[in-house]
Design brief:
Length: 765
Amino acid sequence: MKRKILLAGILAFAASTAFSQIMPWENRTANDDSPFAQGSSQTYNGKLLLDDVVAGRLISTRGAGALEWLKDGERYSRLEPNADGGKDVVAYRAKDNRREVLIPAEMFTDKSTGKRIPVRSISWSADNDKVLVYTNTRKVWRYDTRGDYWVLIPADGTFRQLGKGLPEASLMFAKFSPDGTRVAYVSGNNIYVENIADGKITRLTDDGNDKIVNGTFDWVYEEEFGCRDGFRWSPDSRYIAYWQSDTDGTGFFDIINNVDSIYPTYNRFPYPKAGSMNSDVKVGYVSADGGKTSWINLPGDPRENYVPRMEFIPGSNDLFIQQMNRQQNTNRVWIASVGSTSAENIFTDTDAAWLDTNDDVEWLDGGKWFTWLSERDGWRHLYKISRDGKQILPITHGDFDYVERVGTDMKNGLTYFIASPDNFTQRYLYSARLDGKGDAVRVSPADQSGQHRYHMSPTGKWAVHTFSNAAKPPVIDMVSFPRHRSVRVIEDNAEARSQYAALGLNPKEFVKTKSGDLTLDAWMIKPIDFDPTKKYPVIVEVYGEPASSTVQDVWGGGDLWNQYMANLGYIIVSIDNRGANVPRGREWRKCIYGEVGTFASEDQARGITDLARQYPFIDSSRIGITGWSGGGSQTLNCMFRYPDVFSTGIAIAFVADQRTYDTIYQERYMDTPQNNPDGYRKGSPITYADGLQGNLLLIHGTGDDNVHYQNCEMLVNELVRHGKVFSQVSYPMRTHAINERPGTTLHLRKTMAKYWLDNLPSGAK
């Protein structure tokens, strides 16, 4: 339903296959000409075979890997495999690429057993003298945020495990104190501090249990606010500030596992559905030596307000807290000081629709100003606000959206950010003066049309730069600023570029379409043997929710699933409807407030109809639509509300009734069902189930903790009530991504391909 869901849904297949790591080519041959034939290493001229596509054997795209800039801003470190099968920590100097092994793999050896500890990731202390090693990880919902931690002191080779006496793989979010003498972490919903010198462990909270959550978050905060790490060290290393969630009173949801034992087992977790009771969330601080927690007095019912962000102001023991009301249209900024439980409201941001959290607040001029993103003038811009909240000055201005922060060059008084004023499918680097004078200046090269990403050094002097577009795999280079001079190429992905070219595919084409007087961005992929004098069926790939976008000019691993379907005889199309999260201004994004699902399906129907008018090769009698998560919901809305346009649909992991989804996401865009009952009714596909006329396939995982399988059952019940015939495939104990357990992804894609071929006749006419 939101950005992360999109990645887990619409883009899950691309992430797991097209964005593959380097994999061996297998010497197998096709046994027949069916679209489901076994794969071959000789797969050219658009004749893609499904198991090759699913296994990710066709295009091998390399990235730069996880890297971390060191404190000097001149070097970055990363893990690199060595000849012995271990991983060295290696540093590269930005200036000349001088390589230095900072920590050889043999230092990650448990001296008591002589066994090498496998390294999942590392993090440095502030002085770069110590390293935390994360290993033996476990998944918590989406991410491996639970495991074991070891601390290494490279200077003397000390290497020992943290949290001795606590359960295996139970530590979360371990991080050094700013002075590097201690490490804090969460285990069993309680917070601990461990002294590095002697291993002494101090338990800071003792009330954590299955309902009281300290230092991390409940399901909905993690999913919708991106909150996982729930505690912060004070700059002087004396205090820990943290969140506590009391989930008692929140509705619990049960997932039933019928496949792993002869009797069912249950996974129960708190999940507040739209309009229901939230957890009681509060923030406080405690001495890192132990003692009583001081809770910050924020006004309002904690179950009717959110505290999505909290950080210490650099160089002080003052907390900077963002508090949102339940409707998420008011964000109050509070400053609270250690030594007190009171808080001062210094600034309040409001919007008639909704607000997003400010995730990149940066302090300027020694803490006199902080940066803030706001859409107060109709566009998303960066402002600086005085510490007392009385002065608000624009840093960026003009008819364009500030997309995201890249970095800051304090020495030259510049901020770097991503924007795209002229093409909403692309992304470029811009700079602006921190004093707000002058216009923003494009920094990304004029001859690199597509999308740019940057991992900038803390000084703003260097960045690892990644450029790609829909037809060009990423090129990664080191660039220097402020001139954006390429120093050297880190990865050119020449092999991937050659592999893509060898497939002989028709590249994705970006086009425009109309919904009434509104111009929409779209793309299409044509079959390899496309004949413009004939007519082809169309499959529309839809998302449609307000948290993301499908029409982006960025490398997607070659779009091999869509290419595979295109070369079975379809034209694949995607359209960004109103409300899609693109830099087209506040009105574009927020005009759908209270109407999620209604404008989206209208724009999809109008958009594909207009494309059929523009392009005579589109057969308007053979139009299908498919989507995942929010896209599954829009698929259903389109099938039920516009049966004269869409004849076949595949809806995956969909929300059928918006009341079944969580409070934070659904109420952000729709308010509560109590306040907006008509909006929930109009936006929910289940309302229009009696409108089904075409062919419909429903796909859902029964273990989906995000969009519950309940949605599928509720919709099936309604379709049956109206006598509607449909098809359904349920994947036992698969989550929202439907990619767990052997064979799942291939089976899913075979099922989809077969359904299209059986119900939306392919090929030119």
